[in-house]
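If you are new to this repository, start here. Below is one unmodified record pulled from the training split, so you can see the exact layout before writing a loader.
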Amino acid sequence: MKKLVILSFLAVLSLTAFKTNDSGKLPSATVKTLDGSTVNSNTFSNNGKPIIISFWATWCKPCKKELDAINEEYADLVKETGVKLIAISIDDARSSGKVMTDVKAKGWTYEVYIDENQDFKRAMNVNNVPHTFIIDGEGHTVWSHNSYAEGDEEILFANVKKVAKGEKIEH
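And here is the target side for that same chain:
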């Protein structure tokens, strides 16, 4: 009985610890910038324009392929839709030092944050990477995709364009 009470308490605690706020917008979790300062994820915004949030890791080859593929068209997509990409590394303290090296080597111009404790990852219900989300101009998650295969970025781009125009997208 004691185990059941403890498990019930932990289940309730975990459900409330990382819930999204009442408006259904991004959950609150602390992430680090590349210079080591902290930011709360619920402050991510893009002046009413869409945001792509991509969870990745330095050890994840499909993650890097996806971010490279997006990078090839990113400047044009920004001009057309105003989208902002936020890349969230889930590398822990042992490997997070490699994040800056990868970002510089790849020439990514995205906003990059490190989720060393993986609090934001858990709050967004990310089980494995790469995991990509589209957030609409009001801060609501409207699309997500897990894994990466060549060409997936085209689906992402098409959906970002729809969101930017205020159109609904289907998953």
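Two things worth knowing about this chain: The chain has five helices and seven strands. The radius of gyration is 17 Å.
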